[in-house]
Design a protein that fits this description.
mainly alpha; Four Helix Bundle (Hemerythrin (Met), subunit A); 7 helices
Length: 144
């Protein structure tokens, strides 16, 4: 059964647009942090750390996938936020403070909701095809 699930997930990822993949990544990080919080509250330090690291790995992947050339200022700002979140989660892990995980979850949920809104907007497909920087900026302004 696990193999069928993995095959389904692979097809889902291969056929989903990039915006929806980003939303899925944010959802995964949020899920892992919620699991880490449960383990933190139960003093299960091994699993707490395991799930925080999984969330950090997702944030790292989001960070590494940024196109700094095309994204310019937006990518630079996202990189700063992702870097902050990873440091903050490291501190939450060491200090064992569930409220720190809650704050990180709130930030991730806001990003997830914003990316979800963009990915589900009919004008998103138009924005994907645009090559000109000015057209990209105008499309983003329409979506905001």
């Amino acid at each position: 059964m696990d193999n069928r699930f993995q095959a389904y997930r692979q097809v889902d990822i291969n056929t989903t647009n990039r915006g929806k993949i980003v939303v899925m990544l944010f959802s995964g990080a949020i899920t892992f942090l919620n699991k880490a919080k449960i383990h933190m509250n139960n003093n299960d330090f091994v699993n707490k750390g395991k799930y925080i690291i999984k969330a950090q790995n997702i944030i790292d992947e989001l960070n590494y996938s940024l196109d700094m050339e095309k994204g310019q200022e937006i990518s630079k700002n996202l990189r700063s936020i992702y870097t902050f979140l990873n440091r903050y989660l490291s501190q939450a892990n060491v200090q064992c403070k569930p409220e720190m995980l809650d704050k990180a979850i709130i930030i991730l949920e806001k990003f997830k909701n914003a990316f979800d809104e963009i990915a589900n907007n009919p004008e998103y497909s138009e924005a994907k095809e645009i090559k000109n920087k000015e057209q990209v900026e105008n499309s983003i302004r329409k979506l905001i």
